Amino acid sequence: MTGADITQYFDYLFMVMLLFIGLTIIRLQNLFAVVMLTGVYSLIAAAWFVSLGAADVAITEAAVGAGISTVLLLAAMLLTAGEAKPTSAFRHWAALVVMAAAGVAVFYALGDLPVYGAADTPANTGPGMAYIERTPDEINIPNVVTAVLASYRGFDTMGEVFVVFAAGVGVALLLNLSGRGRREEDGE
Amino acid sequence: MVEIVAERFTYAVILVLMMVGLYAVIATGNLVKRMVGLSIFQTSVFLLYIATAKVFGGGPAIFDYDDLAYGTIPEDAIYANPLPHVLILTAIVVGVATLAMGLALVVRIREIYGTIEDDELSEIDHDDELKKGV
């Protein structure tokens, strides 16, 4: 270990809260409570992002993950059903088997992950740190994340905009937001 | 073995959170709750990426404005790795786009079938096919 850090204690706090909320979401059948707890889950994840040193991600997660996602889920819930029907015991056992198989697979890979919080791991020595060194000379703005997002990896961000546009068009077509086909149906 | 897990304890818990999301996806028949399970899984993946970017003693990769202006950024300053942060910023926005798409599909299914429980949906489909004589 590379020495303890005060943020590790925050990690333990957030872990316990997230696990508790996740298990509660599985148990609850009332969709309003489930959607609200999802918002809380995102907000606590955002708090954890701050403690992990990812301020930009935390702002985005709080605004988009906890804000817009919750609104979307609430709208979908109001348009469909307020209560989920309980499922058969067989289904829970099947889910448990799939979860166990996937869990064994990911835990088998756990040992190959870089040591938590170390600065000399391959993940934390490559291009990421080079961006920090080069940003003051090449881009000259204080926030390195902004520099990488909008300049070094600008094409990624452009692709993201295309994806969001495609999803927006898809939602508009699926829900028939222009209302054209609907009027014809009314006329018949 | 114990040391390997102890050094990666945060990842281990985040992997458990992912599995909670996976369980929520499979164990429920309600399509809205299934989207909730997917978004839990997704948030956990974000946490895994950001956790690998953590460097002990390092804050966000933001320079002091005066240091930048006068070229006096300290050489030994420690920052978290900004690259995973950028990747996850993109992923969060794309995640909401896919969530909106999935929920729009759920709303359409409700409009046509009148239910969003998947066992009832497959029953209706089955009856329809019997009527058609497939």
Q: In a nutshell, what does this entry contain?
A:
The complex is a heterodimer of chains A (188) and B (134). Chain A has 188 residues and is mainly α. In chain A, 73% of the residues lie in helices and 0% in strands.
Structure description:
The complex is a heterodimer of chains A (188) and B (134). Chain A is mostly helical and 188 residues long. Chain A has a domain at 127-188. Chain A is built from eight helices and no strands. Chain A has helices spanning 7-27, 31-51, 55-79, 89-108, 127-138, 144-152, 154-174, 180-187. The longest helix of chain A is centred in the middle third of the chain and has 25 residues, at 55-79. The relative contact order of chain A is 0.06. With 134 residues, chain B is mainly α. Chain B has one domain: Orthogonal Bundle (Helix Hairpins). Helices cover 75% and strands 0% of the residues of chain B. The mean pLDDT of chain B is 90. Chains A and B meet through helix 1, helix 2, helix 3, helix 4 and helix 5 of A and helix 1, helix 2, helix 3 and helix 5 of B.
List the helices and strands and how they pair.
The complex is a heterodimer of chains A (188) and B (134).
Chain A: H1 7-27, H2 31-51, H3 55-79, H4 89-108, H5 127-138, H6 144-152, H7 154-174, H8 180-187
Chain B: H1 2-7, H2 9-27, H3 31-52, H4 65-70, H5 82-113, H6 118-132
Helix pairs in contact in B: 2-3, 3-5
Proportion of strand residues of chain A: under 5%
Number of helices of chain B: 6
> For the terminal residues of chain A, how far apart are their CA atoms?
72 Å
Order of helices and strands of chain B: HHHHHH
> What is the SS-derived class of chain A?
mainly alpha
CATH class of chain B: Mainly Alpha
Q: What is the radius of gyration of chain B?
A: 23 Å
Q: What would you call the structural class of chain B?
A: mainly alpha
**Beta-sheet strand percentage of chain B?**
under 5%
Q: How many domains in all of chain B?
A: 1
Number of strands of chain B: 0
CATH fold-level assignment of chain B = Helix Hairpins
Radius of gyration of chain A, in Å, reads 22 Å
Principal-axes geometry of chain B comes out as elongated
Estimated helix fraction of chain B: over 70%
Contiguous uncertain segments of 5+ residues of chain B: none
CATH architecture of chain B: Orthogonal Bundle
